[in-house]
Amino acid sequence: MTFDALTGVLAIPAAAAALLATLPDYRATARLNIVATTLTLVCALSLFVVRPLPGPYLLIDDLNATFIVLTTFVGFTTSVFSASYIGHELATGRLTPPFVRFYHAMYQVLMFAMNLALIANNIGLMWVAIEMATLTTVLMVGIYRTHEALEAAWKYFILGSVGIALALFGTILVYMAARPVVGEGLDAMVWTVLVKRAGAFDPALLNVAFVFLLLGYGTKVGLAPLHAWLPDAHAEGPTPISAVLSGLLLNVALYALLRFKMLLAVNEGALAPGPLMVTLGLISLVFAAFMLYRRRDIKRLFAYSSIEHMGIITFAFGMGGPLANFAGLLHMTMHSLTKSAIFFAVGHIAQVKGTQRIADMGGLTETHPTLGWGLILGVVAIAGLPPLGIFMSEFLVVSSTFARAPALAIILVFGLLVALAGLFLRLNSIAFGEPRGPSAEAEASYVPMFAHLGLVLTAGIYMPPAVVAWFQNVAGLLG
Amino acid sequence: MSRIDFDVAHLLAGSLVLISFLELYQDRLYALLNIYALHALTLAASVAWQAFVQDAPHLYVTATIALGFKAIVIPVALHRIIVRLGIHREIEKVVGAGSTMLAGMGLVALSMVVMLRVTPGADPLAREDLAFALSVVLLGLLMMVTRRNAVSQVVGFMSLENGLVLAATGAKGMPLVVEISVAFSVLIAFIVIGIFLFRIRERFDTVDVQALDSFRGERR
Asked: Do B115 and A208 touch (CB under 8 A)?
């Protein structure tokens, strides 16, 4: 087998996972973790230049190249954040060295599984990869082994398993639809073959399949009313994992959904997946926006904000068309960067305060100005205020919707405003006022957080034409 | 395909649905585990029959996994776990056995209506297998929502998963079936190890999932 970049994004995390599982020293493993994610990022970036041809198992095109670069980039920055975060956890004794070793190995396994899910050309392989990603995150969520963490892991496990079980049923139905046209065997599960021949598939079977896939992968995207696992899993796991869950894993599940949406778009008799996605997206947005108000745990607050934003993204892709798809892609990228930056800040804040309760935080801008203002910048970005990137993508989603379905746009804007008010209500008590609660010196790494926020700010002010052209090209692919 | 091939496959898949119904109203954990072992055994027979009919030797691997892992190892392990946890005498109040059965019948009817209507073109064996498989999946889901005990929820999930394997083997020539069944076995092994290692009993004082509801992350 020749070594190309596609093998690289799989082989590097796999090898690193094996190595990290055996090395005992914390400092060396944290560094090795960073080195591995850097190499994976380099491999992913090289996919823009040299691109291997699709095979029956692996595929790279403009769509998943975008996803994979985003995934490896956030994976890289999170590994930098994770090094200082985990150092603190070791120092305070919340994690012991064997668990840290396990954590690092699992981090790389998760990267491997997500990369595999993104570049899989075979819908069965994609399913296996997403299952693997679910399992690794379950283990990571339960790593603190407290009552709450185990319970969150159990809930995530059961709901996630049901979700992927339904997705598998959908996958089998797609195969059943393809078999009479493509013939038996491997070809009937290869996405590139399917999308060429999907026009001749039985539309009724394809419709049922999509409903199962939407419910199954939709659970993993965290769409309401299938979201119940998400806040717990975000709140109880280590914060780097919350960042990766929100910023990446939700996207990976959404990507799977988009691939099947493209399949249905080819078939003229099949139902339009758009309205289903639009409905689920809007429900998630409005529901999560209201849920922001009564949160008392800072990580749960931002977990609900993730549900809200996944709702917006699903809505945008559901609307379809070049402009809405462009907005959806942009929003997805901006949300990944911003939300992981927020979790970087939240992770250190929870460490210096020794708690995740919002009531015990206050006056962060006075006691820890860098963290406090970093969080404020992040929340301003995630709430969709100008001049940051999310303002632009939300503006595009809203304006493209106003042109086509004004009634939906009103619900959309309503949800956005409710969420904005909810976030600022909470932010006010966290960042300003009298300093409250315990407080320790911050030993934080600010670079990943400000790098992400810097990118989001730059994107809000000036998007290079090359990036715009690239996103337009991908949006065109999505149809 | 000869008449007998079809009839045997039909019989086995139909029995799977019936056994799912049996699981629905078991109120003792031991009995539930025994019925589940029977479920897995029937699945193994069904998969082996498909392997024979379709002349697909790799499916024998899936059948062996179903027989060895799901029909023997998992029930035995769960037996020991519930003895260790000291809940083997516990009687679980099944919420309205009658209405649960009625709901189950409704779900089976639903899956027949849905699957038979959308697959008029497919070959009859695959078509009925798929309808039965969906019934088993839905009955598994029903069991997961009506039970409060973590162990019976896991049994519900495992029978749901048996339905998926039935669907995958019924879809003739489907690639990766063996890989998928291995992946699922890993998942189930994790769940069972999870119950044991995390000692849900010890941490939660009960395996009654309702007790977990006290935790919403908001009332600390």
From this structure: yes
